[in-house]
Amino acid sequence: QVQLVESGGGLVQAGASLRLACAASGRTISSNAMGWFRQAPGKEREFVAAVSWRGDVLYDVTYYASFVKGRFTISRDNAKNTVYLQMNSLKPEDTAVYYCAASALTQSLSRGSAYDYWGQGTQVTVSS
Questions:
Q1: How many CB atoms lie within 10 A of CB 108?
Q2: Which pLDDT tens digit goes with each residue over 29-68?
Q3: Contacts of 42 (CB under 8 A, 6+ apart)
Q4: What's the average model confidence in pLDDT over 107-117?
C-alpha cells in the first residue's frame, strides 16, 4: 500500500503562484511514476502532469497537459518521497480539487486507470 497526502492548496488571485506537494509513504518502492489530476465542479477529472523515473532524478521524464505547459512544473524530491507541482500564472479556470496519484507504470500516465493509489485532494481556488 502507498499513502499519498497532498498539501499546498488555497485561495489565490489570478496571476499568482502555488506549489502543491504530494508526500508518499508506505510501499513507495512499488511506484515508478506519480501524476497530478484535477477535477472542477461539474466536470470530469483531467490529467495535469506526471513524472516517471528509473533511478536518479536526472533521468526523470515529465509529461504535461497542453493547457498547463509553460505554466506548471512537476518535480520530485526522492529523499523526501515527495512530488511537487509548481503552478505559476494561475487562471480562474485552474480552480479545481487537485489529486496526486502513484503508478507502477511508466507509460499511459495521462490516464487515470494507470494509477494504483490516489490522495484525498487539495482545493485550489483562483479568483479573477
A1: 12
A2: 778 999 999 999 999 999 999 999 887 777 889 999 999 8
A3: none
A4: 95
Q: Minimal CA–CA distance to 101: which of 10, 39, 17, 11?
A: 39
Q: Which long-range contacts (CB under 8 A, 24 or more apart) does 69-74 make?
A: 72/48, 73/49, 74/36, 74/49, 74/50
Cell digits of residue 31: 511506484
Contact 98, 6 (CB under 8 A): yes
CB atoms within 10 A of CB 77: 12
